[in-house]
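Appendix B. Raw example, untouched.
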Amino acid sequence: MNQQAEYSATAKLLHWLIACFVIALLASAFTMTRVSGFQPKFQLYQLHKSMGVTVLGLMIVRVLWRLFVKPPALPSHMPAWEKAAAQGTHLILYTLLILLPLSGWEFVSVASLNIPTLLYGYIEWPHIPTLAELSTETKKTIEPLVKNAHATMGWVLLILVILHIAAALRHSLILKDGVMLRMLPRFFRAS
């Protein structure tokens, strides 16, 4: 594999950090709605919100990095449809990974319970002022819409993550074309 075809170390670090947080976010989303007892549920929701804010910050850094450091070109052997699918999927993933935390922030800002967000149990994260100041009736109207939008985007993200992993494994195990190796840290690759 040509070393120039690799992603930068920063791009790799951001990719894998975000991937770990996304997996944890999806797991916590499924768990927190099913757990009983106020304290465990409260802690899971707080952790979920903390990780969501973290992903938002990491995605801002990732988008800025990608604007200034172009990713390696896709291999010339890839068919045009596959290149378009890869680029489209990445665009949708990036969009979702920014919109999901923003919609979660919007959701807690209009939530009727008005529970503060404590990032990792220590730092208070503010509600969005214009939304937090809405009337109770307006919040009751908006809250289920925002909640459903957040949940729907979460399901779409889950599907795209599965497709992304499947495509990476296809390149690694079936095509053996080195595409997946471009994003793997060097210590995971055989010499």
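End of appendix B.
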